[in-house]
Specification:
Order of helices and strands: EHHHEHEHEEEEEEEE
Distance between the termini: 39 Å
Shape: globular
Helix content: 10-25%
Number of domains: 1
Strand content: 15-25%
Length: 283
């Protein structure tokens, strides 16, 4: 369910006032569907009988690999571009025999999706965001502020390699937009660190997570590159059937297996989460 508090007011009540009902709004139901993902595999009984190099059992090896692939595919689905869900919102399958497609973060977020060049966030509007460009520190911080003002407590950032390198280059000079690369030196171990994994803002600590399945984008008119700023306590992976392996009945001279899971994504108070897009893949 999604609802919002009424705007703040300085109006007072008079002593002895008769009852007068205030206007109330009913909460809206926010829905998603479960998505099934799996892998089917077969191994011949000859493969089971031989002694392969690198692993002891070909069937168990395929089961392990399938489990990792299914979990990876779920992660890709969380960060899929908006509109990829069935019926435009993860409500139902589009046709008989078509699998259900859950909403992604992009599908849930409506209020705080901006291009990195957005003048709303203090960016330089390059042809209304028609081309990918660098994420400036002032834009990054302004979106965090907006999410906090919306009632959120953003505490995690998910981004691919280019976005992570860009954030690691911030020097704390908000107006300048990170003109100097952050460098931390440890003379005793002869180590130079050029990475930021935690970013302390006026609105709290932000953990920066490197995720290879967040779209990294490109250059020019490729606007897929993204940075997600999330209030993690208000997100949840809703598991209906955990990813699990099942051995099926033998099929002649081969053995069959299946790895399958069914889950969905829950996002509460979409105003407390944000996404920046049109990030250049060149940090």
């Amino acid at each position: 369910m999604e609802d919002s508090l009424a705007a703040t007011s300085t109006a007072v009540r008079t002593e002895g006032q008769t009852f007068a009902a205030d206007t109330i709004t009913s909460p809206a139901r926010v829905v998603n569907v479960t998505q099934i993902m799996g892998k089917h595999f077969v191994v011949s009984k000859t493969q089971l009988a031989v002694n392969p190099i690198g692993f002891s059992n070909a069937f168990l090896y395929e089961a392990m690999k399938a489990s990792r692939e299914v979990m990876r595919n779920f992660e890709v689905s969380f960060f899929r571009s908006s509109g990829g869900s069935a019926s435009g919102g993860g409500v139902t399958a589009t046709a008989a025999g078509t699998g259900r497609v859950m909403k992604s973060f992009d599908d849930f977020l409506t209020s705080e999706k901006h291009k990195v060049s957005s003048t709303t966030l203090g960016g330089a509007d390059f042809a209304s965001g028609a081309s990918a460009t660098t994420l400036r520190e002032v834009v990054f911080n302004t979106l965090i502020q907006r999410l906090w003002e919306n009632g959120g407590n953003p505490n995690w950032v998910f981004t691919a390699g280019p976005g992570k390198r860009t954030i690691s280059s911030y020097d704390g000079t908000i107006v300048a937009g990170a003109s100097t690369i952050t460098i931390n030196e440890n003379a005793s171990s002869n180590t130079i660190q050029r990475a930021i994994n935690s970013y302390i803002t006026d609105f709290g600590l932000i953990n920066v997570a490197l995720d290879r399945f967040v779209p990294k984008g490109g250059t020019g008119t490729n606007l897929d590159g993204a940075v997600y700023i999330l209030d993690m306590p208000r997100t949840q992976i809703a598991i209906l059937r955990p990813v699990a392996f099942e051995r099926l009945a033998d099929d002649g001279d081969r053995v069959r297996g299946m790895t399958l899971g069914e889950l969905s994504l829950k996002v509460m108070n979409q105003d407390s989460h944000g996404r920046l897009s049109a990030l250049s893949s060149i940090a």
